[in-house]
Amino acid sequence: MIKRKDKILISAIDLLYSEGVSGVTTKNLARLEKVTEPALYRQYKNKQEILNHIVEAYAQYDEKIINTILESRLSGYEVIRYYIKRFIEFYENYVELTTVMFSMDLYYYHETTKARMEEIVNKRISFLENLITLNKDILLKNTGYNSEEMASMIHGTLFAQIYEWRMTGMHYALKERALDYIMKLLKSTNEYEHINEIDK
Question: Where do the TM regions start and end (predicted)?
């Protein structure tokens, strides 16, 4: 059974998705949850605490993805493919949370929440950079980029692809397109075509 606090958080994420940050109000949440506003304050002190929990939900599977990779024997292109697939699958299955990355009003103007969002982003990029460094002889061959640059480009491509997917009505398979674009970043044309045939 879902706890009351978790139900409120789910409703808050739904409101963010449908109405933006301005729509995440205690009045709207009370209406959705069919409770009084004082009842909400027994679960969350204020709106900011709810927004903080939304940011935490945005990154709730990061540790699981990272630990699975660290415990695996994946290497080379496959370790990057795995990271991208798991990352994208999470947001494909919980589209509402993608709104967080495009809602600067949610975190940018609050010192603690901004710092937390920076921590999430930096940790993702740093983890990618470490993966690339460990596999640089394969992943950076013929690219002309170093590990830091490639990690930033992969992260930026994921961000851009999720944005485009959302803005165009999510009418195509995000995971396939994101994988296609990022693998092309990592491989020369001949290598890409060869590996892509194997993946199929």
Answer: none
